[in-house]
Amino acid sequence: MRPNIFSRFLLSYPLHRATVAGLSFIAVIIGARYLPFENFSSAMSAAFLVKFLQILNFGATSGYFVSRYAKEGTLGEGVAGAEQRFLILFGIQLISFGLAFAIVSFIWLPQYFFGAIAFLLVAPCFAVEPYVRYRRNFSFSLVPDLLLNAGLFSLIALQGLGWANMMTYLLVVGILSVIFWVTTMLRHIPSCASVRFGGDDYLQVLALGWPLYLGSALFLLASSMDRLLLSLYGEETQISLYFLAHQLSVGSMIFVTAINFVNTVNLGEARQERDKIEPMMVYEKLKSAALVATASYFSLISGTFILESTFLPNTFHGLSSIVIVQGAGFAAFYTSNSITPLVAYFRHQMPLTLYMGLVVLALFLNNLWIYMSGMSVLSLATGTTIIFSIYSIFAIMYTFYILKKCT
């Protein structure tokens, strides 16, 4: 029996993504209201680092992505054991490099240590996510956010008992991560008992994926630069204020990023079948993303004004100003991402990748300027928004240029 519309809606990725985003909103808002600054800033920094350290995949996920659609890698149909070997080596890679980062942070960068440990706890879920995603289970990609929300809720719930510390946070995240990983292995992953253990296939995946990985790594670095560096030179009050503004700004774009997530797969399938991609179709995707982003942005502004004036403590004064500036930059940034995957499918990713490298450099210099001048986090958000907006305009123009050139 085919599921009805209501059942399909309940099982849909956009609904799950919106639900997890709603939980994130609730968790960070309540956390900002009731947790001490040191606990709130530590939890927000750890959650950020868990997602940032996915940069340690070194192209593995991107290689999986390329080989799936190009049908020219070891993960194509009919290659026995290839995916199992991929999962084993991907997991080893994430854990080994995550452990090395944890050791370095323990010695030299204590601000990152709890985040590094949290990443190690969530790494098994990251390792199996590509396999599950390309079985059309997009919702599993939301598991890390769900785990981090649960950790923050545990701090809030235990605050009154005096047990709200990062050890409690890590314990909750670790237990839930093991539960999700074991459940997923039992339901989705074939037995690896008879799989030949070897690295040749994995190296081929890395070789296929590095061009796309370079772009995705720079994208992740650009979208994370402010929080990555602010954790090193900012005060706890600045970190809490900026991280909360960032969470609200990015969270408000949840429907835009959900559209983009699905579009990436759909455009790849169209390209795989050699369907002609019409400029009007791409324009409509861009227009839809822009409309959703605009509506989300104005909802974000009004909601933040209400939060700051009625719910949050006075220590979060100025949150609305930062959100107005920062939200505009992310609205432009994610709108451009609704069509830029086309550039990778047409094998013309490198110019956009190089430009993203310039964005990363500009963001670094912006942080350096704020640090040296002692200016406010509002100035930091302003510089970032200007940089993101310039990139977004260039990315849209370049995507349509490549589309016209290749079709």
From TrEMBL:
Iron keyword on record: no
Q: Does the keyword ATP-binding apply?
A: no
Ordered alphabetically, the record's keywords are: Membrane, Transmembrane, Transmembrane helix
Q: Which residues cross the membrane?
A: 20-37, 43-66, 86-107, 113-134, 146-163, 169-190, 202-222, 242-267, 288-307, 319-340, 352-372, 378-403
- The protein in question is named Polysaccharide biosynthesis protein
Q: Which organism is it from?
A: Pseudogemmobacter faecipullorum
